[in-house]
Structure formats: structure tokens, C-alpha cells
Design brief:
heterotetramer, A: alpha/beta, two-stranded antiparallel ribbon, 11 helices, 40% helix, globular, B: 12 helices, 19% strand, binds thiamine diphosphate, binds magnesium ion
């Protein structure tokens, strides 16, 4: 018996739950006050947006919405590692990374408000719309990266998926082709430990999700997903490597879903007692705040100013969202093909003449 | 006997079969502790245990392929696809294996299994949660495709589906999961698969529909009655194999037909029904076959879905046109 | 100019576009050194290199999803599914994304791509290699489904498909890959997608078909001519979106229709054509719409496929019945 | 950075290409003359069957046929590790294991002769028919194993797949559920280094196929697929473990396809020069023969007798195959459902009345 291959999975963390550094050496950027404040602000803003969206749904002004409570460090962390030239293939809980990459909060709200115009991004023009069918976005990312590779562009692609989604064949097929074609993709796993009501413990027998990359021969790392410094540092390295022909990286971000799966869910049906108590002790926003305070770059005063700004910013997005009238019936037809077949044109006329009142949020 | 909703009838049928046949197993994503995202399996895991009501990993092709393997051993898996929009990863297992195993093995291996899936629009759901793609599976020989339109039929037809010796795709019109209640006795009595139901007898026009749209169709029939027009209403119920005889009989009687469906028109089940009539009773027709359907475009995201789905008004317009046709 | 077969025409069209548009890439299983199992890409990798003609890992969902990503960047991937029977692992990517991206993003992201697949029976192939499931994709709004019936159309329609701004499923009737030759000039001239072709003009009956069955249909038309019956023959060519106007015009002229297809009958493209006629020209019909098709059963393994596929005799029988109908 | 998981892949071989033992300790069964002779005979018979089937295709008496030349040790090795109570979910190149498990050569020929009756196994009544859609069989195996587990049966399931097929999502989804549900499945990878014309080198970036099991948290081993002792020993252990609730095992068998992909293929289009020369030096049958000779349990005399028997046995199967008339048209309908819908009954009558002559092999 001879050993023909060996592997190991590393876990990285820079800040513990109390915001104390646990690593010998901090990334250089993690000492830059402006960078840290921007990341902190983004996380606070996402939490505020999620809170507002939840309220909109509860008051009948929006459909199903998936909050990212407790997982803000993941989306903000890897989203902020992307440049405008990079491409993002998000999943439905990806609002944090999408906003970091230029999607507006108003677009996010429009989308979950049942309006395709929410996927017509003003800024992130090449980014994919939210993928609802789980794991499919991973393959789109490999295709975008293939185009970049064939054209010799120094850009990269990021895609995010939940830990439950890694059970889908598409996830693995994407890893495999990214591996053999050495594609510049960063695969982010948001391991929030739940797939709706299904705990990670019955999703896979793996001790880590990072190790799934071994099946594709690509590099993988596990990070503390509540430590934005760990998430972002891993993402910055993966992005740099990807842009320079170094190929794909899988980053497992271990976190916890501190909210219901979506507004349509009630986690009390299945979540063990006091998982949330310990969960809230680990949440990412307070952790970064404590770290910034320990560096002496953040105080109560700044906190209040920032929160006031963020609340106002989110409120503006909400107001614009609520002020957007529903699209007209012909919009159902005008983006089906570049040119609408004559047969369907008749239906278009008919739909216009049979316009139904309503179409509220 | 308390009146129950369609979703409660599904739950009751599942419980009944789980109780009376130890080979029956319910499986799928979130069917366990959560009881399914629509509560179809609510309480069943508590009652029957984790070996009878099984939360699976998140993979639809796996759910279908695994069910095939279980069924080949004589078990009767009832698998849930959380929404019909997510059945497509399982298309290969369903089309290439589920539908063909009996044929391929000359009857040596059979697959007594059910794939359940909520389908259709009208509940303000996220993208990919509102389509009506029954025609795809209705075109596959070897499958049976059943769509209950109300609580009693949901109970009786799901019992029949679970007891059926062959694979059944059981599509649940989620828009009407909770809008009507029937008094349904938990007596284990099934409804026949492969038969249309004549819901309402009439002489002037035949209205044909299935699933949730049957409700708008019935409202239209009532409005027509007010105008002195007697409409016969047929619930297709089993969309494959199609019970065309019942439909043809009605056509002979009325000579006028309107088919009502939520799905896009082109290549739909309505097309199949119209084609059969055109082939077998074309000269019984006193008017062209009317079709009220979703449009031949992508099911719009929910803010526009009202514009897409057939309304009572659209059914009325088409029915009157058809009745008045000379 | 040498006469070429349908498969050679496919190869010629691919080569033409690879040569004239650097965004065009051919990819799939065994399309490289092997030139495809039917030689559709024969010699292309040698000529255009491994970055333009790409052997992929063995995964159809990946091939489709990857093509979507490439196309979103403005490339024009032409992906091969080795056989249509193996397209189903890609069903989710095709139905939920390929067909919808333009719509979902309000035109921001478009997918100029082609999925090629050999399909149909009659070549004594292994199981799962002989089905005709075009109806499944023809029912999906947002896709175009094109089926060439001869070398010239294969060349012109494939050019059009590759240049089309939207996704095209291009199904190649492999039974006739090599049975007829046409002189086809490599002039880059496309045939229009979305149009039927009237192959033969006639006044007594309209025979409608597509793909390989068009050949039996033409033989039947010739035999009918011997009997003094003038048959019009229509090659549907683009099965979705359907050019129904050309068909209706012919129906108005002849009043008698027979639809010929290899696919099972229920819920097929033939059903759609018949339904449209029944809705729009029912009173132009002098006889019931005739349909000659595969049976509503699993495509049999090859020793029985002859029993399954429509023959000239079956077409003749139906055509005569339809012509003689009073 | 802390290491959270480590893995290694072992390779086992008992006999080298010249039939010399390379392991310190041979399995006990590998010293039993009758066992070795039976395995040897099975491999010789498969090669003879493949040769004959090839000839039948070349003379127009059969359709496409996939030979297993050079890979006989894999199918015979793991197939002979199964008992009659176990279930096999084979793939199209699985004739060796199928025959070991009771499928008759005549059924194999009927199948590739285009006749569904070839999948109506006289003996292996619960085995799946050949899976043509790649990787789908892996999921069927997990379902059969789930039924066994729920019923508390001490049986196991074996399924085989080519190395190219491991790129399909179904393969990975099967591994994952087998892992988390601890299912009694043995996954056999026939790594014959080619997927039709696609070499393993462009199929995946993994250094081994065995390591793909790490993505599912299940045990894996790589064996010399041309060494039937290594294959069978690994399979015996995996089967024993599976039957006793020990869960799944992935066995990668490294071999080489010494034939065309199928009779429809011409490997000269893509196979590198002299791959075959070295390949034939490693082939499994001669290896076992040399080992048996070194044990003094095999000689020219026995070889001749055995070959004569095998040739006759195969010839009988071929004769029966050729003597089997095509099934009648109604067979197209009689196994669609337990009860044929009235609508289709009309078509059945019609098909009978329109019977076409022919339907040859
Ligand atoms: C293909 C597919 N199957 C099922 C669903 C329904 N669904 C939506 S979210 C979800 C759970 C996903 O869990 P995970 O991947 O862990 O991501 P999370 O929601 O926890 O971020 C399921 C089953 C879907 N959207 N797509
Ligand atoms: C889903 C699917 N896709 C494509 C094919 C066509 N096909 C048949 S064999 C083959 C190559 C398989 O190679 P491998 O998995 O290594 O097995 P081997 O034939 O080498 O034993 C392909 C692509 C198929 N049968 N099924
Ligand atoms: Mg999760
Ligand atoms: Mg191989």
C-alpha cells in the first residue's frame, strides 16, 4: 500500500468574537482606518436594509425576502475584494456582495418586490441576476471565466452558494471544469449551517465544505465567516490569483443564519433552543466594531453619525422602491427575444387591451 | 367531519398511506421537522419517524434517482420537489429512467413511486416558483401526470397515485392550496387516475380546464348561466394519459369548446386536447375551438403575473365569442 | 462545387462562422481531436485550434451553464450535446436560464448561443440514442428550436442560428446525416429562422413534416402524384416559434392536412399545429386533420424501431383516407 | 492558520505486470487454486465474448458494442465479490461484472442486439439494466441501498462508472447521499483513462479519481485495475463493510482501454502512438496466468482445455442470440404501464396491423 495523494484543509481567523486579533500577523489593509470603516459601514447598511425589507414584507409591501443577518461579513468581505472589471454571479442571499459590486439597494428591493427591472443593473452591467435555482450560478461563473481566459483578460469571477447548495451536481460540475481549465473563479460558500430547515449535520458527511474542492483538484480554504478580515483577505488573495491565471479557489465561510430562511419561513419550527444566543455572541458587525475601537479609530460619536447616514440611505432606497409603479403588460413580451414572433405579437396586443388593474407589490 | 383545504387533504392522504403501507416513504427537502414549505408533510415525521419521512440533501436529481432505486426494491417513495420550477435537475432521471424502467426491463423492474410538486402562479412567489410546465411531462410516455383541483380530489387522487404500480407526477396547484375547503372523510377511498371529471353538466358549451384555473372556469360557468348559457365544465385531472373520450362526448353534445389553462399556449396540454378534437370530432364543432391560456412568454415575475394569468373576464369573452359564433 | 451531406453541411457552416467571427467557439464532448462522434466538427480543432474547438469534461449541465456564461460575455458558443437523449441533465440550465436571461434582465444580458444535438431514430443506435423530444423545448418560450431536413438548410439554418441574438436549439436528424447530398456553396448565406418552407406545391392535400420524416413525406407525395393527387409538402424547419401563417395558407388552399412526425403523438408539435388549425381555420377543413406519428410509448430499442417509425405506407394510407374523406 | 482536516489516498497492488507478488501479504483467497482459476476463466471468457461480439457487429449481426478489453480484471474482480443477494447497477461497459452476478452472455448479446429482452434477466432479477445515460446508475444504487438500510437487510449494492463519467453531477450527488446516509454502496470507477476520445488528462485536475470521495466524506482507495487480486480484495472488503452498516466505499481501478470505445469508434483518430504497446504489457489476464504458473497450479494443458470450453460456451450464447427472432410489435406497448390506456390500445392494434417486415439485428 503506497500513499499517492495527501491533502489538508486550513482554517483562518484574524479576529475572535471579542474583536481581539488571533493571528500573528494582520493583513496590511486591516490596519487602514478608512478601509475598516467602509467595511463596517457596509455591514451595518446591509443589516439595516434587511431589517427594512423584512418590515416591508410584513406590511404587505414586498414578497418573500431572504435576509443575510449574521452573514454580513461574507458578502461585504468578498464583494469588496472585487473590482468593477470583475463579474459577480450571485445567489438569492447575495445582496451584500451585490451592493459592494455596484448593484443599488433600490434594485435589490425592486427585485424582491417582484419586478424584473431589479435585475437590470445600472452599474454592475455584466453581473448575473440573482440565481434562484440553486447552484446553477456556479456554472455561469465558469463560463464567464472561460470567456475571460480565451480573451486573455486579467479579470476574475466570483460566485456565492449556500452550504446546502453544495449538494447539487451543478456545484461539483463547476468546480471540476474550473479545476481542469484553470479558470479564474472564486467560489464562496456561505456556510450558515442551515438549508432552510435542514442542518448541515444531515447535508453532507464532510467535516468541512472546503474539502469538496479536493474532488476537483482546486485550492480551498476555510475561514471564520464572521471575521470580515479573514473573509476579505482570503478573497483578495483568490481574486489576485484568479486574475493572473492562477486558477480557481474555494473559500468556505463558516457563519450562522441568525434570521429565518426567508420572510416565508419560521425557524422556530426547527431551530434548537439557544442556538441564537450563542450565535449572536459571534456575529460579525460587533466584532469589527470592537476591533476598530481597540485600534482607537471608532467611537460612539462616529457610530451614531454613521448609523444616521445608513438609515437615511436605506430609507431613500425604500421610498424610491415604493414610488415605482408596476411595469406595463407589454413588458412581459418585449424582452423575450430580440424580435417578437408575429404569433406572440397578437398576444401582446391582447394583453395590453386586457390590462388588469393592480399589480401591487 | 371538519372541512379541510387542498394542502390538508394532501397531508391526510400521505398520513393514510404511511399508516397503512409500511413500504410508503415520504422524502424531499425540508419535509421533516419543517413539514414542507407548504406544510404538506406537517407533523408526519413526528408521527411516523425519521425513517418514514426523510429530509434529503439538497439535490433533485438525487431525489429522483434515489426514489427510482427504492421503488425498484418494492418500496413506494413519495418524493417532494419543493417547487415545480426545481424539478428540472431531475429531468434526466424522470425522462430517461423513471418513465422507462418497466418497458426497458420487460416488466421485470417496476417503479411504484410518486413525485409531488406544487406548481402554478398567483401567490406572489419569487422567480421560478410560478411556472406551469405540466406539458413537458405529459409528453413523456410511461409517466402519469395528475393534477387535483380541489381537496376531495387531492385526497382521492394522491391515494391512487401512491398505490399506482407506475410512476406518477402529482402536481399540486398551490394557488388553491387554501382557498376552498371540502369535507373529506379519511376513508382511504381513492379517485380513479385516467378519468376526467364532469364537474358541471351543460348543453351550450364545454369548458375544459385543470388545476387552479378550474376555479375561474367555474366562476365563468356561473356567470354564463346568469346569461342563460348552459356550460359544461370538465376537470381533466389526469393530464396524461388523457381521458379524451369524456371530452369528445361533451363536444358532441355542445359543439362548442373553450380550453382554459395557465400554461403558455404553444405546445401545451390545451393544444393536445384541441388536436384530438380536431382529429376525432372536427365536424361536431359549431365554432372554432377557443383557448384561454397564459401567453407564449416567460412567466413574469409576480408584479405582472396578474397580467399573465387567465381571468374570469378573459374566459367569459372567449366563451361568449364561441357561443355566439355562427 | 461538390455535393455534400447534411453532416458535412453542418461542418461547413461551423467552419465558416469559426473563420469569420472570432467570438464563435465550438465545444462539447469529443468535438476536438475526434471531430465529434458523427464528425460534425471533423478537422475543426486542427484548423482553428484548441481554444476555438474545445473538448469539455463529460457533463451536459456544465456544457449548457458554461455556454450561458460565455454568451453573457458576448461570445457565441456552439455547444454539442452528443445525442439529444443526453440533453436532459442540461434541462435546468436550458429551461430556467438560457430561455429566460434576456427577459429576466430586461435585455441587459443576452445569450447568442446554439445547442446542437443529433436526434431521432432509424440508425440502429443503443438505447436513449433515438428519441425525438423536440416538443419539450418547443414549449419553452425564449428558446428557438430549429430542425434542418437537408444539407442546404442545415448549412443556411445553422449559420442563422449561430448569428441569432437569442438561444437556438438546433436538432440534427441524424438518420439523414448522409442519405442525401446537395450542392451547397460555402457563401455564408443563411436561411431564415422562423419560416416554414413549401417544398412542393400542391392543391389537394397539405403534408406537413420536419426533420428526417420529410423524406418519407416526399416519397408519399410522389406516390400520390402517380395517383393524380396533388400534395403540397411543407417543411416546418423552425418548430418554435412556429410559422403558422404559411401552414394556414396552405390549409385554406387544400382543406386537407396530414401531419407527419417521428415523435410520440400526445402533446407533440403535431398537436400544436393541429390545434392552431382547429382554432384559426377549422371551417376550411374538408376532412379531419390526419396525423401520422410515432406511438405514445417509449421509443423501442432498435430491433423494433422499424415498427415504431412512420413509413411511406402509413403516410399514404392516412393521406388517401384524408383525400377521400367526404 | 490551523489545519482542520487531512486526507490521504492509498494505492494497492498485489501483483506486478509480470505476475510477481509486490505486497508483503497476499489475501488468503488469493492462494486458493480454484478461486484463481475461476477468476482467470471469467476474464478469458469476457475477452472471448467481446471478440465475438465485435465480429458480429462487423458482419452486420449486431449494433454498437462496447468491449472491455484490458479491463477484465475490474468487472470480474468486483463482480465476483458480490453474492446473489446483493444488487448490481451496471453501466454499458459492465458485461464482466454482470456475468459474474448471473446475467447470461446471451442476455448481453440480446441487449446489444437491440432487444429489451436482454434486460429481462433470468437470474439477476433485482439488478438494474445497463445504464446508458452516464452516472445515472450511481443514484439508483443509493436508492437500492436506502431500501436495504430501511429494511435492515444485510445486503449491499455495487455500481460501476467510467472515469469520464465522474464529471457528471449525478456521480457526486450519489457519493454525497451515500456518505451522509451511510449507505451500503460500493462505487467502482473503471479508470481506463479515456472517455471516448477525451483523455483523463483533460477530464479533471485531480491526481486521482479516488479523492473525489473526499467531497462526500466517504472512504476511498485506488487499486491497480489490472491486478485482479487488488481489485477483488478491495471489493470484498468494501462489500463486507457495506453489508454490515459500515457505509460506502469508492474504489478507483486504474487500467487502460485496449480497444476502441465501441464498435462505432476508431481510436486511431486520437490515441497516441504506442500507448497500446505498453498497455498490452500491463494487461490483466496474462498477469494472473503468470502468477498461477508461478504457484504451479496452471499449465499449457489446462490453458488449452479452458480456452476450448470458453470458446464453446461463448459460441453457444452467440448461436442462441442469432436464433432469437425479433419481438412482435405489441411488445412496444405491453410494458409501458401495468395497464395500457385505451388511447394507446388503439395504437397497439394499429401497429400490429401495420407490422413491417424486418427488424433484423
Ligand atoms: C434547485 C433548487 N432546489 C430547491 C430550491 C428551494 N430552496 C431555496 S433556498 C433552499 C435552501 C438553500 O440552503 P443553502 O444552500 O444552505 O443556502 P442558504 O439559503 O442557507 O443561504 C432551498 C431548498 C431552489 N431554490 N433551487
Ligand atoms: C449523460 C451522457 N452523456 C453522454 C453520453 C455519450 N457517451 C457514451 S460513453 C461516453 C464516454 C464515457 O467515458 P467513461 O465515463 O470514461 O467510460 P468508458 O466508456 O471509458 O468506460 C460518452 C460521452 C452518455 N452515454 N450519457
Ligand atoms: Mg445555508
Ligand atoms: Mg473511461
Amino acid at each position: 500500500m503506497t500513499t499517492v495523494a495527501t491533502f489538508k484543509i486550513e482554517h483562518t481567523q484574524y479576529l475572535d468574537a471579542s474583536g481581539k486579533p488571533t493571528a500573528k500577523k494582520m493583513p496590511k489593509w486591516a490596519k487602514d482606518a478608512d478601509t475598516l470603516k467602509a467595511l463596517y459601514r457596509s455591514m451595518a447598511r446591509i443589516r439595516q436594509l434587511d431589517t427594512k425589507a423584512y418590515a416591508l414584507q410584513r406590511t404587505g409591501k414586498m414578497g418573500t425576502y431572504p435576509a443575510a443577518t449574521g452573514q454580513e461579513a461574507i458578502g461585504v468581505g468578498f464583494g469588496s475584494a472585487l473590482t468593477a472589471d470583475d463579474v459577480l454571479c450571485p445567489y438569492y442571499r447575495g445582496q451584500a456582495s451585490m451592493i459592494e459590486h455596484g448593484v443599488t439597494m433600490e434594485e435589490i428591493l425592486l427585485y424582491w418586490g417582484g419586478d424584473e427591472r431589479g435585475s437590470d443593473f445600472k452599474n454592475a452591467k455584466q453581473d448575473f441576476p440573482i440565481a434562484v435555482p440553486i447552484a446553477t450560478q456556479c456554472l455561469h461563473a465558469t463560463g464567464v471565466a472561460t470567456a475571460m481566459k480565451l480573451r486573455g483578460e486579467k479579470r476574475c469571477v466570483a460566485t456565492e452558494i449556500g452550504e446546502g447548495g453544495t449538494s447539487e451536481g451543478d456545484f461539483y460540475e463547476a468546480l471540476n471544469v474550473a479545476g481542469i481549465w484553470n479558470l479564474g473563479v472564486m467560489f464562496i460558500i456561505n456556510n450558515n449551517q442551515w438549508a432552510i430547515s435542514v442542518p448541515s449535520s444531515i447535508q453532507t458527511a464532510c467535516e468541512t465544505y472546503a474539502q469538496k474542492a479536493i474532488a476537483a483538484g482546486i485550492e480551498a480554504v476555510q475561514v471564520d465567516g464572521n471575521d470580515i478580515i479573514a473573509v476579505r483577505e482570503a478573497a483578495l488573495n483568490a481574486a489576485e490569483k484568479a486574475r493572473n491565471g492562477g486558477g480557481a479557489t474555494l473559500i468556505e465561510c463558516v457563519s450562522l443564519r441568525l434570521c429565518d430562511h426567508t420572510t416565508a419561513d419560521d425557524a422556530r419550527r426547527y431551530r434548537p433552543e439557544n442556538e441564537l444566543d450563542s450565535g449572536w455572541k459571534n456575529e460579525p458587525i460587533i466584532r469589527l466594531r470592537k476591533y476598530m475601537e481597540s485600534l482607537g479609530i471608532w467611537d460612539e460619536q462616529q457610530e451614531e453619525t454613521m448609523m444616521a447616514e445608513v438609515v437615511a440611505e436605506v430609507q431613500t432606497a425604500v421610498d424610491n422602491y415604493l414610488a415605482t409603479p408596476a411595469d406595463s403588460p407589454e413588458a412581459m413580451f418585449d424582452y423575450l427575444y430580440e424580435e417578437l414572433p408575429s404569433r406572440t405579437q397578437e398576444q401582446r396586443e391582447y394583453a395590453i387591451n386586457n390590462k388588469v388593474v393592480g399589480g401591487h407589490h | 367531519m371538519p372541512a379541510i383545504t387542498l394542502i390538508e387533504a394532501v397531508n391526510m392522504a400521505l398520513a393514510h398511506e404511511l399508516k397503512h403501507n409500511k413500504d410508503v416513504v415520504a422524502l424531499g427537502e425540508d419535509v421533516g421537522a419543517n413539514g414542507g414549505v407548504f406544510r404538506a408533510t406537517d407533523g408526519l415525521q413526528k408521527q411516523f419517524g425519521e425513517e418514514r419521512v426523510i429530509d434529503t440533501p439538497l439535490a433533485e436529481s438525487m431525489i429522483a434517482g434515489l426514489s427510482i432505486g427504492m421503488a425498484s426494491q418494492g418500496m413506494r417513495p413519495v418524493a417532494e420537489m419543493q417547487f415545480m420550477g426545481f424539478i428540472f435537475p431531475a429531468a434526466d432521471q424522470i425522462i430517461c429512467h423513471m418513465a422507462r424502467m418497466r418497458h426497458r426491463t420487460r416488466g421485470r423492474l417496476t417503479l411504484p413511486l410518486v413525485i409531488r410538486a406544487p406548481y402554478g402562479g398567483g401567490i406572489h412567489a419569487p422567480e421560478h416558483h410560478s411556472e406551469s410546465t405540466e406539458a413537458i411531462f405529459a409528453h413523456i410516455p410511461g409517466l402519469k401526470v395528475v393534477i387535483p383541483s380541489n381537496p376531495s380530489r387531492a385526497y382521492g387522487l394522491l391515494l391512487a397515485a401512491i398505490r399506482d404500480p407506475d410512476p406518477v407526477i402529482f402536481l399540486e396547484p398551490k394557488r388553491v392550496y387554501r382557498i376552498v375547503k371540502h369535507e373529506v372523510e379519511d376513508n382511504g377511498e381513492e379517485y380513479p387516475i385516467g378519468c376526467c371529471f364532469v364537474d358541471r353538466e351543460g348543453t351550450d358549451i364545454t369548458l375544459i380546464s385543470w388545476g387552479a384555473m378550474l376555479h375561474e372556469t367555474h366562476m365563468a360557468a356561473a356567470k354564463l348561466a346568469e346569461k342563460g348559457i348552459s356550460a359544461e365544465v370538465i376537470d381533466v385531472a389526469t393530464v396524461s394519459p388523457l381521458d379524451i373520450d369524456t371530452i369528445l362526448e361533451s363536444v358532441e353534445k355542445t359543439g362548442r369548446v373553450v380550453i382554459v389553462q395557465e400554461a403558455p399556449k404553444a405546445g401545451s396540454l390545451g393544444s393536445e386536447i384541441a388536436a384530438e378534437i380536431a382529429e376525432k370530432r372536427v365536424f361536431s364543432l359549431l365554432a372554432p375551438i377557443g383557448r384561454v391560456s397564459g401567453y407564449d412568454t416567460v412567466m413574469p415575475y409576480y408584479r405582472l403575473e396578474k397580467q399573465y394569468m387567465p381571468t374570469v373576464d378573459r374566459i367569459m369573452e372567449e366563451a361568449l365569442k364561441t357561443v355566439e359564433y355562427k
